[in-house]
Write a structure and sequence with these properties.
Layout (H helix, E strand, L loop, with lengths): L1 E8 L5 E12 L7 E12 L10 E12 L9 E17 L3 E16 L7 E12 L7 E10 L23
Antiparallel strand pairs: 1-2, 1-8, 2-3, 3-4, 4-5, 5-6, 6-7, 7-8
Length: about 170
């Protein structure tokens, strides 16, 4: 997934726009509903250096499990939920300087893949990010963008059928 993203911290009037990229790997054929996700987003508020509320950057890096219900799903869309349980948020800029905090995030989203091959599509994702070890404020992150799904072909099982050959008569 790669797309545009928006963050607003609780208790703040500052809106940060930026980008968001993530990748997921499923846990195998028997556990297609479970994947491990790596997630990175960077949000900016640029300024000219004269206003203490400008020149901020927030970087979020997280890892965690994602659940995608398979049964009863529709071919065109996949709904998912995730809990990023291992993460960090780094906020830099004026007036606070730089601060890094451990963080967790809980979110959900939907992938819409209209093609017959279900490879390219669009994603809408919403996350609640909660720094747990500092006074950085929690925030909501909304992201929208393109999703690409890698589908690896299953190896074909060897056939056990006998091929017709020349018939042999009694010798």
């Amino acid at each position: 997934f790669m797309g545009a993203s928006y963050v607003q911290a609780k208790g703040s009037t500052i809106d940060l726009g930026g980008w968001h990229v993530s990748g997921a790997a499923t846990m195998g054929e028997d556990y297609k509903w479970l994947s491990l996700v790596g997630d990175l987003s960077v949000h900016f508020l640029g300024g000219d250096g004269t206003d203490l509320t400008t020149d901020r950057t927030q970087t979020t890096l997280m890892v965690g499990p994602r659940i995608t219900p398979i049964k009863g799903g529709h071919r065109l869309h996949k709904i998912f939920g995730h809990a990023m349980l291992l993460g960090a948020v780094h906020s830099a800029g004026k007036p606070i300087g730089g601060t890094t905090a451990a963080a967790v995030a809980f979110g959900c989203g939907i992938d819409v893949t209209p093609g017959a091959d279900e490879v390219w599509g669009a994603r809408l994702q919403v996350d609640y990010i909660l720094p747990v070890s500092s006074d950085l404020g929690h925030s909501w992150r909304v992201s929208v963008g393109a999703v690409y799904r890698f589908h690896f072909a299953k190896p074909e099982a060897p056939t056990t059928e006998r091929r017709p050959g020349p018939e042999r008569g009694p010798s």
